[in-house]
Amino acid sequence: MAQMDPGAFAGFKPDQMKEMLPAAFAGFKPDQMALMAPDACAGFKPEQMMEMPPAAFAGFKPEQMANMAPAVFAAFDASQMREMAPLAFAGMDAEQMKEMASEAFAGFKPEGLAAIDPKVIGSFTEDQFKQLSTDAFAGFMADQIEQLDKDLIAEIGTEEFEEMTAEGVGGFTKKTLNLLEEEVFENIKADQLGGLNAKALKRLDDEKLEAINEDAYAGLRGNQAKKLGADFINDLSEDALDALGEGEDAFRGIGKVLDKLDDSIIEGITAENMSGFKKSQLRKMDVETVALLSEDAISGIGEDQAGGLTMDFIDAIGDKVDELSGDVFKDLNDDLVEELTADFAQDLSVDQLTGLGDADNLDLLEDDFIGAIGADQAKGVTAGLMAGIGDKLESLAGEVIAGLSNDTVADLTADTLGNMTDDQLEVLADSDLAEFVSDDARAGLSDNDLDALDLDPIDITATDPVIDAAAPTVTI
After folding, report:
1. Which of 49, 150, 284, 291 has the fewest CB atoms within 10 Å, counting from its CB?
2. 398: closest CA among 367, 382, 414, 422?
3. Cα separation of 309 and 280, whole Å?
């Protein structure tokens, strides 16, 4: 059999396989098995499978496994399961799994276990489950854990749980999470804590909640904190709160619980924490809570959260507005842009003004805001900002015009220059900046604008092609 062309295996029928000597199976190879017709596998017998070398199992496919008689599964051993193609496990059904020898489960690998249908997982016996290696538990998925019998859940110890993924532990329900021993929670990892079902965590016995190691709180999510409540969070140790400060999702979705937390906890919210807040949370946050946020926390607000900022939020953080990055100003919502004041404009950094210049709602800015921009902020005034404010550009102070960068002037279009007053254009000229106006922009300017800039028109006169009189004439 070992010498047979793999393609020939596609022609085998169930009756042929049934009559084949068990010893012949000892020569099967994975590439041969991979090409065998699925219905041919219906002819396999237990004594034949016992002879098949483990390496051949790497060729099995789900549809082949699905066609095998349940009795065949009783012949599998751990070494064969260890080599089985992971996807092949997806073809097994509950009736087949029940027949598999417990010892064979010792060969299950995480990838294979993960492929098993959740309903089939529910057919595992206690003896089979106990044979799984600790490494195999890394393969359990949440919907599989949900199907496990309660008696099997109770068998999961610290070593097995330690191998489980954050996705896998999400399968423990409010009825099964409490079946785990207290020692499990003493050793739980941050990502595992974050993976637990929030409702299940809320129902966890107090002594087990208290047993959770402090470092694990780096993985706590806002929706879990919401279920646990403000009193629980307020009672966390200093080390646990320090760990909480490492989590991006620690306060995401925490809801009204946030406003019930101790001031010291709000003051301890980190930039990492803040980066996980939803826009809706920022929009609804109580101003007294906002006022407690640290500079570090404010620095964590990102461009994708900018739409949640309100004028009340801005007023509440006061001077800490300096910590907002320029990127945040690209995506401020329309309501906030309309409410931006002259006082606010004066306090913006060059980086923040530069970011604002990339916004698409600059037409909502008030004249007072534009007029309040000062000379020391001029390098933050971009061609994009000047174009975006349209005819309100005339409110921009001459000292700002004089301080524009060469690159900004080079990027100005004829339309933008056309929105400037004669006085502003003359400032450009007097500041030796007019020379940086691009030829394309100059070509679109009126004579009046060119005069104000002290620039000559672009000569676009086209010349007729010159015909060389000395060139020979060809007669056809």
Report:
1. 150
2. 422
3. 9
Instruction: Look at the alpha carbons of 410, 370, 375, 453 in this order and tell me if their dihedral is positive or negative.
Output: positive
User: How does residue 411 score in pLDDT terms, banded at 50, 70 and 90?
Assistant: very high
Range of the domain at 422: 325-458
How many domains does the chain contain in total?
Answer: 3
Can you give the chain as a three-state secondary structure string? Answer: CCCCCHHHHHHCCHHHHHHCCHHHHHHCCHHHHHHCCHHHHHHCCHHHHCCCCHHHHHHCCHHHHHHCCHHHHHHCCHHHHHHCCHHHHHHCCHHHHHHCCHHHHHHCCHHHHHHCCHHHHCCCCHHHHHHCCHHHHHHCCHHHHCCCCHHHHCCCCHHHHHHCCHHHHCCCCCCCHHHCCHHHHHCCCHHHHHHCCHHHHHCCCHHHHHHCCHHHHHHCCHHHHHHHCHHHHHCCCHHHHHHHCCCCCCCCCCHHHHHHCCHHHHHCCCHHHHCCCCHHHHHHCCHHHHHHCCHHHHHCCCHHHHHHCCHHHHHHHHHHHHHCCHHHHHCCCHHHHHHCCHHHHHHCCHHHHHHHCCCCCHHHCCHHHHHCCCHHHHHHCCHHHHHHCHHHHHHCCHHHHHCCCHHHHHHCCHHHHHCCCHHHHHHHHHCCCHHHCCHHHHHCCCHHHHHHHCCCCCCCCCCCCCCCCCCCCCCC
User: Are residues 226 and 100 part of one domain?
Assistant: no
Same domain (yes/no): 235, 332: no
| Domain end residue (candidates: 262, 289, 318) | 318
pTM: 0.82
Pair 332, 414 in one domain: yes
Enumerate long-range contacts of 82-85, CB under 8 Å, 24 or more apart.
82/54, 82/107, 82/108, 82/109, 83/54, 83/55, 83/56, 83/57, 83/58, 83/107, 84/57, 84/58, 84/60, 84/112, 85/57, 85/58, 85/59, 85/60, 85/61
Q: How far apart are CA 418 and CA 412, in angstroms?
A: 10
**50-89 tens-digit pLDDT:** 999 999 999 999 999 999 999 999 999 999 999 999 999 9
Considering the domain architecture, whether residues 279 and 364 belong to the same structural domain is answered as no
State whether 112 and 229 are in the same domain.
no
Burial call 442-457: b when 16+ CB within 10 Å, e when fewer = beebeeebbebbebee
Q: Are residues 233 and 351 in the same domain?
A: no
Query: Which of 139, 158, 190 is where one domain is finished?
Result: 139
> pLDDT confidence of 474, banded at 50, 70, 90?
very low
Q: Please tell me whether residues 312 and 332 are part of one structural domain.
A: no
